[in-house]
Amino acid sequence: MTNTDIASSQRVPKKRRARGRQRREPWKRKAERHGVSTRTLDRWVAQGIIAPPEYIRGRKYGDADEQPRLDTAA
């Protein structure tokens, strides 16, 4: 086998996007939508009211469809 044959046989297929993938929104926009500050969202994460954010290139993103849990005791 030549070097080109080895390279072509080890080619990794591209990943396809999942159809039902989760919509993300910036942390600040999520806070504005709920009428709170970004620090309040951080507190909600610590209390388990919302899921932790996903970090993409150092920025926080949250699930756009997620609603805060109201059944937690304060």
How does the SSE layout of this entry go?
Blueprint: H1 3-9, E1 24-26, H2 27-34, H3 38-47, E2 54-56, E3 59-63
Antiparallel strand pairs: 1-3, 2-3
How many E-type strands? 3
Looking at the chains present, what oligomeric state does this protein adopt?
A: single chain
**Gyration radius over CA:** 20 Å
- Residue runs with pLDDT of under 50 for 5 or more positions: none
Please write the string of helix (H) and strand (E) elements.
Answer: HEHHEE
Query: Strand-residue fraction?
Result: 5-15%
In whole angstroms, the N-to-C terminal distance is 67 Å
Average pLDDT score: 82
Structural class: alpha+beta
- Principal-axis shape equals elongated
Task: Tell me briefly what this model is.
This protein is α+β, with helices and mostly antiparallel strands. It has helices at 3-9, 27-34, 38-47, and strands spanning 24-26, 54-56, 59-63. Helix content is 34%, strand content 15%.
